Amino acid sequence: MPSDVATYIVASREGVRLHRHLDAEVLEQVATFEARLRAAEDGAPAPTASPKARAPKASVQKVLRAGSVKVPSQALSPKHMEDARRMAEVYAVLYAFENSMREFIDGHLTAAYGATWWDDPKIVNGDMRKIVERNRSSEKRHRYHSARNARVIYYTDIGHLPLLVQSANGWKVFKAIFPSDRWLAARVEVVETSRNAVAHMNPLEKRDITRINLNFEDWLDQIKGHAPPPVP
């Protein structure tokens, strides 16, 4: 009998609840040796394990670690536990993709028109301005919550970013970088559906994740060599 199994048997007889500390495979091993040991103590033939008559597996509580929070199985189904692990990686890609676009657009517009480019109606249309003001007002009402980036562009929706590029004064800056004024819009349209699904805590299929990665790689290839000056 392995020494660790012997220790677990002694602990079990002392009242320690092994299922709280051991996985199912080890518990089964302990149960098998425990049965043999009791048979020897009683003078009966030791039971032999067979594929059809294995010791029943003890119930083991699976735990998902979401950051520093432990989520017991009763609180979340196994499917959603697995989805959470998969989608954590997808969120990181979406976060990097969207904020790369914001930094790039903000940097080039600031370099071309100064820090007040947002006030130019030939870059920012009225509808976009209203939505941004609504978002900023909502943030002011929820003062307990950490604020967004101080730059105005971080209050826009992802669908606004191509509009900044396509605007009259925006395209004067970006036509030397993108092959057409629809190039960025096409990528945002593809990614936005998946982005919104993730934002509402829905899992994505493998093909959707692949599509996000490919569009992010296209974006990185297109902006290579065109980094704007850092925004103050």
Q: What are the salient characteristics of this protein?
A:
single chain; 232 residues; mainly alpha; two-stranded antiparallel ribbon; elongated
Specify the structural class. mainly alpha
* Unreliable spans: none
Beta-strand portion reads under 5%
- Overall number of structural domains: 2
Number of helices: 8
Number of strands: 2
Largest sheet: 2 strands, antiparallel
Radius of gyration: 29 Å
- Strand line-up of the largest beta sheet: 1-2
Q: Tell me the series of helices and strands, N- to C-terminal.
A: HHEEHHHHHH
- Helix percent reads 55-70%
> Roughly what is the average pLDDT, rounded to an integer?
84
What overall form do the CA principal axes indicate? elongated
- N-to-C span: 69 Å
Blueprint of the fold:
Elements: H1 3-13, H2 24-42, E1 63-66, E2 69-72, H3 78-113, H4 126-141, H5 160-166, H6 168-174, H7 183-199, H8 206-223
Antiparallel strand pairs: 1-2
Helix pairs in contact: 1-2, 3-8, 7-8
Folded structure, characterized:
It is a single chain. The protein has 232 residues and is mainly α. The protein folds into two domains: 3-60, no CATH class; 78-223, no CATH class. Helices cover 56% and strands 3% of the residues. It is built from eight helices and two strands; from the N terminus they run H-H-E-E-H-H-H-H-H-H. A two-stranded antiparallel ribbon has the order 1-2. Strand 1 (63-66) and strand 2 form a beta hairpin. Helix 1 crosses helix 2. The longest helix has 36 residues, at 78-113. The termini are far apart. The mean pLDDT is 84.
